[in-house]
Amino acid sequence: MVILLVSLVLTVVALTFGATVAERLNPLGFDDPASESARADAELAEQGWLENDLVVLVHGPAASAADVADVVGRQALVERVDVRPRLQEGSAYVVASFSPSTDNLEKQEIAERIEAALGDREGIAVGGQAPSFAQLNGTIQADLVRAELFAFPLLFVLALLMFRSVVAATLPLVVGALSVIGTLFVLRLLSEVVGISVLSLNLVTALGFGLAIDYSLFMVARFREELARWGPGLPALRATMLTAGRTVFFSSLTVAAALASLLVFPQQFLYSIGIGGVLVSLLAAAVSLVVLPALLAVAGTKVDALAPRWLRRRAAEDARPVTAGIWYRTARFVQRWPGMVAVASAAVLVVLAMPALDLRFTAVDSSVLPADSGARQVYEALEADGSLQASTPVTVFVAEADAAPGIAAQAAEIPGAAVAAPPTELGDGGAVVQVISDAPVFGERSEQLVSALRSTPSDSEVLVAGPTAEFVDLKASMVDHLPLVALIIILSTIIAVFLMTGSVVLGVKALVMNFLTLGAVFGVLVFVFQEGRLESLLRYTGQGALESTIPLILFAGVFGLSTDYSVFLLARIKEARDEGLPDGEAVAMGQARTGRLITSAAVLFAVSVGAFGTSHIVGIKEMTIGIAFGVLLDATIVRAYLVPALMQLLHGWNWWSPRPLTALHRRFGLSEAINSSDRDPASALPAR
């Protein structure tokens, strides 16, 4: 009871402190501080260059635009306000620039003050970079609440169908809720120490919620089995902690290691997911290993209470060996035709992956916001006027103003440059040349324009900034850091599988299957989001490409989660093999003991994470739906068919390792088994 009381107090504190987390997080965070575009921005700010931070679209007479400009101009830190007639008669743009010394979070706060000052005036839409930050923040907060409200009832129904008990079905949701509250609290604390991107909030929260439900599912399922064997009391709880508890602990380390690879990147958005992902993985495990056992100790045999008659199944049935049932029969079917099943399963994954050959990337801008948001309306108005490129030009900083005319002349001759404006001198001897592209801001032709400008010969230092340059630098940074990220993920996968099984071959096989799963996920995302399918159903507007950081996040997330489930299955197969069962029977028994549990865990995880696919931000849809689909694919086609097929084909080679590593595993390897006297050979849920 002490643990529960302390947990209750901590929950109240965490909820109070963490509820305001979104207000403390930074917008976007896709730039590399060491990149050329970031250095150019720093030089421009230092020399007093004013960006167009806010744009108000005004439908009405000129007096209305002048009135709006007056309201905007009275706000603190607003340096300049211009009224620019729009091509469409009867409307205009009010363009404002903030103090160069303001950072993105301060710009967001200024934009919020301006929107509040303008009130509910009809005929205006507030957009531009700074308001898009504020509107993105509000959208993400609303999406978070909606996703949780959508997921909770559905998760309860699914858990009830699995456990056949209201009490048992409620426990994973309680642990999941505690994990979400703890996640918000942790992110709030982190925001005081290091910059955290607001775009990471939903994904990190979704991971924490999903992992907590997964871990508690394993724990509750095992506890019910141990109750049937030991009866009420500490022995059942102790056996649960020594088996499922050990697996949960190791699982959290596996997922955390994969997500930690994102810490390699200098972009705030990516390392925010890395930091948050590592912490919430460990937090979800901590709640499952500390709070949940206390709840189970209090519940005891009442964990099976409130079971509807039509759903009842005696807990003792869960503890009986399973030599029949769908998962055992499926494994035996696969073992009769392993080659055919392996080829067919791999072919399905390859076919799903085929669209990924046309994978294209784009960046985040106001077009990702809901259609009714002010920033989106301004974006579409500028696009309709043909002014979008002019509002987001390529900005060339020239350190010595005397060299700027030459740069402008050369820029005007570069293919892709529609206009090269005359130089504007800055306060400390520098100058700016703005170049407007004749192609979409994030299109290939605009990227080539940036590269050409950076190659322009000059005696002065020349730095290129602007949204297109930032996108070019982002992609270059990701390519530069990808080898190290891949190395971390690959090594963590092989080490995780080796520690649980003692096999190097199984680790390599896990890598191959994870890459097949990842390729299939990419293919489906390209087919749906890049090609603009299911727009009405999923409520999004296709951009003709995927957000550029999505593949990296999915690489880390899908690999970590797939390895997690792989380790759980392979550990049970090894346990059966160590008991003396032949290889084929050990695989079938491992599949039978874990098939229903892994599939149930995958479904619950997919629902809890996939619920964030209701987000209005297309990038969050891509991330969460991609992870949910990858987990479901891994738990079905890969675990049910490809794993047993390949293990049957490899026979004894599955367990091969060099002798030094075999000796190392004997000393440091892990296992879910307790010991020879306590081992329960039927410790997983039966197949159905």
3D structure, described in words:
This protein is of the alpha+beta class. Among the domains are: 187 residues, Up-down Bundle (Multidrug efflux transporter AcrB transmembrane fold), CATH 1.20.1640.10; 87 residues, Alpha-Beta Plaits (2-Layer Sandwich), CATH 3.30.70; 95 residues, Alpha-Beta Plaits, CATH 3.30.70. 64% of the residues lie in helices and 8% in strands. It is built from 24 helices and 11 strands. The C terminus is likely disordered.
What layout of secondary structure does this protein have?
Layout: H1 2-18, H2 21-24, H3 36-46, E1 54-59, H4 62-73, E2 78-85, E3 91-98, H5 104-118, E4 124-127, H6 129-163, H7 166-191, H8 200-230, H9 234-260, H10 268-299, H11 315-318, H12 326-336, H13 338-353, E5 361-362, H14 374-385, H15 388-391, E6 394-398, H16 404-412, E7 417-420, E8 424-425, E9 431-437, H17 444-454, E10 462-465, H18 467-501, H19 505-530, H20 535-538, E11 546-547, H21 550-578, H22 583-610, H23 618-650, H24 659-668
Parallel strand pairs: 5-11
Antiparallel strand pairs: 1-3, 1-4, 2-3, 6-9, 6-10, 7-9, 8-9
Helix pairs in contact: 1-7, 5-6, 6-7, 6-8, 6-22, 7-8, 7-10, 8-9, 8-10, 8-22, 9-10, 9-18, 9-21, 12-22, 12-23, 13-19, 13-23, 17-18, 18-19, 18-21, 19-21, 19-23, 21-22, 21-23, 22-23
